[in-house]
Design brief:
55% helix; 6% strand; DNA-binding; homodimer; 2 domains; 2 strands; mainly alpha; two-stranded antiparallel sheet
Chain lengths: 124, 124
DNA sequence: ATTTTCGTAACATATGGTGTTACATGAAAC
DNA sequence: GTTTCATGTAACACCATATGTTACGAAAAT
């Protein structure tokens, strides 16, 4: 599949697609070929790739929108708040990453197939 | 304490302080007085106010930086991903909010007092 | 050679948070 | 009562990040 087509699917620009897919390529999850009949191809078994691995491949972007702004603040109040919550954030993050690890691309493909087969022409 | 002084503590602008403190005022956590000797005053018992209550007072800002962009997407792939992760995000959020509820302002004040007493003149 | 497609740099745009100015309102001090 | 100090709030400026776009080079097939 080309970046052009993927961009249409994702409602975005081919260059944006290449940016993100490039990270997946560096992680060995996809391959890219240039020229005629080129494009992106999945290079791994869907069973063996979890959303956690995708998260890693995409650079482990920050999970939380709130939380410590500064790991080692000078401010004593900030230190107290950080100390009180760092455990909670760590646990929540660990929980999420565990769940990410539980979901494989094969799981998603299966679920998608079920939805695709089951839809009742509600498209517009 | 005035917005002016609070702003210096927080390294920000008095108006920014008023914006946020205004939310706490609407939630009944602080009172504001104008004129001479005016400023902000905590109007509740520190023991009874948790970080969870502060989170609510501040409008329950989004906790996660990643996650579902669309609750009810038309895209079947997006539907599959959402379905696979919505439980995980819900659990992680519930866990965090529980921990927020466990921390009172009194806890923070106590921890701050300990840090303040224990510091060894490492200030600059 | 031409076409197709990725790779990448450079720049443009949009968004949200933060900072700033300005001015009205209220309360105390004189 | 006038002045001073402080909040309340609107309006605008600024900044960082994410996203979108243009441009062009490199590689592969026709």
């Amino acid at each position: 599949m080309t970046s052009e087509v993927l961009g249409q699917c994702l409602r975005t620009n081919p260059v944006v697609v290449r940016r993100t897919m490039g990270l997946l390529r560096e992680a060995g999850l996809v391959t890219a070929e240039r020229g005629h009949a080129g494009g992106w191809r999945i290079s791994v078994d869907l069973e063996t790739v979890s959303l956690r691995r995708l998260h890693e491949a995409l650079g482990e972007p920050a999970i939380f929108a709130i939380g410590n702004r500064n790991e080692t603040p000078e401010c004593l109040v900030e230190q107290s708040v950080n100390a009180a919550l760092e455990g909670a954030f760590a646990e929540a993050e660990a929980l999420l990453l565990e769940r990410f690890a539980d979901v494989t691309l094969a799981d998603l493909a299966k679920d998608f197939a079920r939805r695709h087969a089951g839809r009742r022409d509600t498209m517009e």
